[in-house]
Amino acid sequence: MSTRYYENLSPAYLGHYCRRLSNVIVEQSSEILNEMGIVTPSASISAITYLHMNSPISVANLAEALGVSHQMATQRVNQLEKLGLIQRIQLEGDKRVKQVILTPLAKSEVKRLKPFTKKVDSIFLELEKELNCQLMSGLRKAELSLLDKTLSQRVKTRGKN
Fold first, then answer.
1. Distance (Å, rounded) from C-alpha 158 to C-alpha 58?
2. How far apart, in whole angstroms, are the C-alpha atoms of residue 86 and residue 102?
3. Residues 6-35: tens digit of each pLDDT
């Protein structure tokens, strides 16, 4: 079998590999969650967990807490609402902003998700040892570094090559 094109991509394609890794993690986690009978999508576990500890909360505050755009948080909230995991409510005193709260279904899923996330934590710690690489902290450091000095800024400092 011939080598696949993506297997020889240069570091310029780091985003491609990060997206592939993210997709593998989401797909494999989703498979386990489905087997457990959990409705919460794997990409929304962090949102459900945060809402469990901090609701009611606005979508804007949820976006900020998760480090995602308001648009991404709105999409996630819409999906979770369709699944019956959250609902939007109007709080007394501020009619402009709707707040998000967990439904009883989501609250029961949070309890069931705790053992899952604990196992996945240990699996990724083992993977870091296996690879001799601090994946989580390395990815976060790379993100912070690119937020501090963007790709555009870095390209400009390289000159016209």
1. 42
2. 4
3. 888 899 999 999 999 999 999 999 999 999
